[in-house]
Amino acid sequence: MDWRTWMAQRIPSSEIQRGGAAVWPAGGKGLIGDSLGPVMHLHDNASEIFYFIAGRCRLELGNSEERFGPGDFVLVPPEVPHNLWNAGEDDLLVVWIVAPNFVDNKWRTDGFPPGAMSRRGVRSRAVPGAALPGDANIRTRLLTLRDRAIHAGQTSTRQEAIVYVTEGRAEIAVGGRSRRLAAHEVVHVPAGTRYSVAPAGEPATVLLFEMPGQ
């Protein structure tokens, strides 16, 4: 997979969420385009998820460290200090989402509340049958679609969704437009919009992120 093409996929930001595909190249000093850099920080009243595509990650969560690899998934709840590093010799590819998106308060790098450094994230793996962690800000589901199975839904006026294909190919309709996505391609569903996801000639596995998650 050409990470430059993969990273060029854009998820429109709104007051509900911001996110995208990020790369820390081998030998680099941080995620490309990350204005904060590898600095311990937290999000006031906002949650963040990381889904790891390739490479190895060292994620600081409060005063602890955890290692992640391809297929791993972690939810960082609000007010949990965290910091991400490339822990291997290869490119690190990660999908991230923060919700809600407070434009004037994206992160805090000091003045953490008492007890913040003892807090932790919630990890899992994005494999069939696994329970993926979520909260009122972000809910994540792994859908395995076969034959003529269709997942259809509609976002509310205060909700957006992101569909990320992890395996196979999927036919995705958003509003009145449809497109075919291959593995590691993503589509955004705006607020108040009908959508559907179906396998395109072969079984498909997709991650469905919904923000807010309630």
Features:
single chain, 214 residues, mainly beta, Jelly Rolls, 2 domains, five-stranded antiparallel beta sheet, four-stranded antiparallel beta sheet, 16 strands
What does this protein look like?
With 214 residues, this protein is an all-beta fold. The chain has two domains: 123 residues, Jelly Rolls, CATH 2.60.120.10; 73 residues, Jelly Rolls (Sandwich), CATH 2.60.120. It has one helix and 16 strands. The chain has a five-stranded antiparallel β-sheet with strand order 1-7-2-5-8. Strands 9-16-11-14 form a four-stranded antiparallel β-sheet, with no helix packed on it. Strands 10-15-12-13 form a four-stranded antiparallel β-sheet, with no helix packed on it. Strand 12 and strand 13 form a beta hairpin. It starts with a helix and ends with a strand.
In short:
The chain has 214 residues and is mainly β. It has one helix spanning 3-7; strands at 18-24, 47-54, 57-61, 64-68, 72-76, 82-86, 92-99, 122-125, 139-145, 151-154, 160-167, 170-174, 177-181, 186-189, 194-199, 204-211.
Q: What level of helicity do the residues show?
A: under 10%
Principal-axis shape equals globular
Q: How many E strands? A: 16
Model regions low in confidence, pLDDT < 50 over at least 5 residues: none
Radius of gyration: 17 Å
User: What name does CATH use for the topology of the largest domain?
Assistant: Jelly Rolls
Please state how the strands of the largest beta sheet are arranged side by side.
1-7-2-5-8
In CATH's first tier, which class of the largest domain applies? Mainly Beta
Order of helical and strand elements: HEEEEEEEEEEEEEEEE
Structural class: mainly beta
Overall average pLDDT: 96
The number of domains: 2
* Termini Cα gap: 34 Å
What is the beta-strand fraction?
35-45%
* Sheet with the most strands, sense and barrel status: 5 strands, antiparallel
In CATH terms, the superfamily of the largest domain is Jelly Rolls
Total count of helical runs of at least 4 residues: 1
CATH architecture of the largest domain: Sandwich
